[in-house]
Amino acid sequence: MGRCSSCGAESDLDEYVCSNCGYHIKTERIEGIPFLSYLFKRPEKKWYKPDKILMRIAKTIYNPAWAFFDINKKKKSGTILILLINALFFGLWGVAINIHVTVAEMPFLQKFLNGLAIFLVLFIFSILYYSIIFWVYDLSFSLASNFSVQLDGILAIRFNIQTKKGSLKELMSGKKRLQRQISEDTIKLEGAKQKKPLKKIKQTGKYKIMRYAYTPLIVINFVGFLLLLVALPTRDNTQIADLFSSPVWTIIYLLEALTLILWIPVLVTLALREIGNTNTTKLLIGNVVIGVILSFLLILLRPDIGAGDLNLIALFQGATS
């Protein structure tokens, strides 16, 4: 155990920020690397009030370290807005495709209504789709954080959350082992911030802060909409299949893959680091590994990627035949 040099509160040796006054107790090596310091250096400015939800979403893109520092202080609801913006741009993908389909003798009003119907169908579908995708991301990155730093165990102890003894969750979170490492002062300070006792990890706001880490999908969906709008060829209604074999889809899928491999894991690392007050590098390694696995399973194995050129299933079948 050690003590904060600013306020004197007791802190365990694995803490990087004082739980009482927010003083920066120690600095990780990754925070001192010139290029990476902009992303990973912990904010040292005093926090006064939370940013607006739209500003928080924007800052996860251009100032992520401060964004998650701010979100962790007051976890307001903004996750629904992130979901809806993603659904909006996904719906616009359908509009972009519809623009490139020509139908002989169709009035402009009819074409507009067709585009609107496509947008609404894709908008509603994508709400369900991204709800499932976000749940998969939550589960996967949570597993990575539990293996790398036993995050759920840290949160369970600090917020005094009771878990069943011998349960799988307790085993994976490492709560029993961590209980001897986290100071009583830290547990009391975190517990005092809560208006009522917590019973689940979810109540700590862990998943709310994680959802802000998925904002790069908004950027990718917007870029995808622009690419489809500009780069798709124009075909009549008997050649719609040609639109979905365009190379532009390969570009979009590769952008999605790179986002899931690099960008999202970095933001998830910052989010979980803030709520767990734990090691950045260990979290980052686990999250990048999960990002690679998810990218391979959810994106690079799509049957239509690259119209066959980058279809890994087709390549494997061709190599074994």
Automatic annotation (TrEMBL):
Highest taxon above the source species: Archaea
Key words, A-Z: Membrane, Transmembrane, Transmembrane helix
> In its UniProt entry, what is this protein called?
TFIIB-type zinc ribbon-containing protein
What stretches pass through the bilayer?
Answer: 80-101, 113-137, 209-231, 251-272, 284-301
